[in-house]
UniProtKB/TrEMBL annotation:
InterPro entries: Ig-like_dom_sf, Ig-like_fold. This is Immunoglobulin subtype domain-containing protein.
């Protein structure tokens, strides 16, 4: 759709002069007055079209900051609305670490990474469940919804995980001692 609009823009879309008659002229003194308003209308149309497409994705969430304890489950609740075919991707970020949790297309496929496979549940509305929380799960979670046409929308969540690190040591007899 953008290609057709750009061709009209390039050709000037001037009704007073056939597009091929102007080829190679550019904006000269002879044709700039009659061509310029057409360019303005086309730029307005392209901007309007881009605005409509960018607004086609919506991510709603009741809560963006969550606090849970170690071994709890968390549900990142979102409601994605999208006019076209879309893909949902969740990413985890903390400090220098950034990793994809999973990507899915509602009703078509689900691809959860190996690190999260046993703990993540995906939902068609874009929501994600993460079970058996660990301290290292604390951080920033981003859901990205992307359409085939290239437009996308992001929403971020902060997860705080309360708890203590568990450590283990063995005594002289080989007995494992665990303290939490």
């Amino acid at each position: 759709m953008f290609i057709a609009i750009i061709l009209l823009l390039y050709e000037g879309f001037n009704v007073n002069e056939p597009p091929l008659a102007r080829k190679g002229k550019g904006l000269t003194q002879n044709n700039h007055l009659s061509t310029w308003p057409s360019y303005l209308h086309m730029y307005s149309f392209v901007f309007l079209l881009h605005t409509l497409e960018a607004g086609a994705i919506s991510i709603q969430s009741p809560q963006r900051s969550l606090t849970r304890s170690v071994q709890d489950d968390v549900f990142f609740s979102v409601d994605v609305t999208c006019n076209g075919v879309h893909t949902i991707q969740w990413t985890f970020m903390s400090g220098a670490v950034s990793r994809t949790i999973g990507t899915w297309q509602p009703g078509v496929y689900t691809n959860i990474t190996v690190d999260y496979l046993s703990r993540v549940q995906s939902f068609d509305n874009g929501s994600m469940g993460l079970s058996d929380l660990r301290l290292q799960d604390a951080g920033y979670y981003v859901v990205t919804v992307a359409e085939r046409g290239g437009s996308s929308q992001d929403a971020g969540f902060v997860l705080k995980v309360n708890g203590e690190w568990a450590w283990a040591s063995a005594n002289k007899r080989g007995t494992l001692l665990v303290k939490t």
